[in-house]
Design brief:
Distance between the termini: 46 Å
Helix content: 10-25%
Radius of gyration: 21 Å
CATH class of the largest domain: Alpha Beta
CATH topology of the largest domain: Purple Acid Phosphatase, chain A, domain 2
Largest sheet: 6 strands, antiparallel
Length: 446
């Protein structure tokens, strides 16, 4: 057995033993999780088992002479016993160690707890190098509510493999939980499903020291292939906001799961492909996918951005031309409008990210007299992948030797001097073994 796996097993055993044996930790359900990072503040998240007072103590790494505390928050049943704790005494470009307090007592957590503030590099130096982990489709087995038969989820050690790559942040590309039939009809069900998925022991070390951002897809939103008609969409959004620590939710004062953030010199646009979406099989009426307002916001935000890489993340595939499953191509008029506006507005650096499909693939759309548009699909994390004989898609847009039909994740590594930036894509299996790599230069997306 690899040394990495032994270390992983030891960490998880220590964590489980601690949870079962330490009285104070019976109040900790999941987390703490590191959320969004800015230069002057960082958001953290935690969930307790019952009502409790929580706060975070933090200090610059390797300098315990001075420390700060977040405001103390009392968790409550109505919020699923979750809390967001704002570290607002940070300075740019620092790494902080932290400690969780529950009811005034420090929680002894066996894995590393760290977060970082973003660097103030503008007008001073080259942009910082950084890494982003990517993944989608994380099914956590729950025999009480799962369908009979072979468990659909597995390979939970993938979260330790992600952590071993030392990413600065992780981007969850949708289907981050899997709502079951017993869940999506009530707020109680939503909170239960989020709690069950977030409490996975193997996930806790990754939550504690890597910044997390998320978008959603149908299994975070409601029933399979759910659209804007879903009666509990407001509950779905409320619970998404309770369990994720994105910097914002919505645009133009319109509530939804959409957000945008910067990391270094790269801009990330996380879109909502559910809240405004017409039914997949609708024939008449407004055949929206992102919706007119969100589409307008996206194009304007992309036009404003000066980032060398503009990462546009959507739950479903954008570039794949095949009108199968829930690809954007099924909403041809709106998809064509988006791609046309990117061309007409001469927006450089656009690169799409997606999940959903239970396989990983890089697709590429060549455009006459313009740079190509890519879409990197990364899936699944812990859900079951399709068998090779079940996968029959063929498209000239598929980049050769990038198809992966096993559980996997990706890491994007941004590096290089200003105006000479590059993005290295690396795709790994459950054990952290490299499956394929590709580097795309800033100059290739102009």
């Amino acid at each position: 057995m690899k040394r990495q796996n032994w270390v992983y097993i030891v960490v998880i055993c220590v964590y489980v033993f601690y949870v079962e044996s330490h009285g104070q930790s019976s109040l900790l359900r999941s987390g703490p999780m590191v959320g969004y990072s800015q230069m002057r503040e960082v958001m953290l998240w935690v969930q307790t088992t019952t009502e409790a007072q929580v706060k975070i103590k933090y200090w610059e790494k390797n300098n315990v002479s001075r420390s700060w505390y977040t405001e103390e928050v009392t968790t409550s049943k109505i919020d699923g016993y979750t809390a967001k704790l704002l570290a607002d005494s940070v300075q740019p470009g620092k790494i902080y160690s932290y400690e969780l307090y529950i009811n005034g007592k420090p929680e002894k957590i066996p894995h590393r707890l760290e977060f970082q503030s973003q660097k103030l590099w503008q007008h001073r130096e080259d942009p910082p190098d950084f890494k982003v982990a990517l993944g989608s489709c994380a099914f956590i087995n729950d025999s009480i509510y799962d369908r009979p038969g072979k468990p659909y989820g597995g390979g939970y050690s993938i979260f330790n493999s992600i952590l071993s790559k030392k990413p600065d942040m992780m981007l969850w590309l949708g289907d981050n939980i899997y709502l079951r039939e017993a869940d999506w009809g009530s707020r109680t069900g939503f909170i239960y499903r989020y709690t069950h998925a977030r409490s996975l022991p193997e996930l806790q070390p990754l939550l504690g020291s890597v910044h997390h951002y998320a978008l959603w897809d149908d299994h975070d939103y409601g029933p399979n292939d759910a659209d804007r008609s879903f009666i509990h969409k407001s509950i779905a959004l409320e619970c998404f906001m309770l369990f994720w620590a994105n910097p914002t939710f919505g645009f133009y004062d319109i509530p939804c799961a959409t957000t945008m953030f910067e990391w270094g010199d790269v801009h990330f646009f996380l879109l909502d492909n559910r809240y405004f979406r017409a039914p997949n099989n609708s024939i008449t009426g407004d055949r929206s996918y992102l919706g007119r307002a969100q589409l307008q916001w996206l194009v304007e935000a992309l036009k404003y951005s000066k980032a060398p890489f503009k990462m546009v993340a959507i739950g479903g595939q954008t570039i794949n031309p095949l009108q199968v499953y829930e690809n954007y191509s099924n909403y041809k008029e709106e998809r064509d409008t988006l791609l046309s506006l990117i061309s007409k507005e001469n927006i450089s650096g656009v690169f799409f990210l997606s999940g959903d499909r239970h396989h990983t693939i890089l697709t590429k759309l060549e455009r006459k007299n313009q740079y190509p548009l890519y879409d990197l699909t990364v899936s699944p994390l812990t859900s079951s992948p399709p068998r090779k004989e079940e996968f029959s898609e063929k498209s000239e847009f598929m980049v050769a030797n990038t198809l992966v039909l096993e559980r996997n994740f990706a890491v994007l590594e941004f590096s290089g001097k200003r105006k000479e930036r590059q993005m290295k894509i690396s795709v790994y299996n459950v054990d952290g073994k490299i499956l394929w790599e590709k580097t795309i230069k800033e100059s290739e997306l102009k």
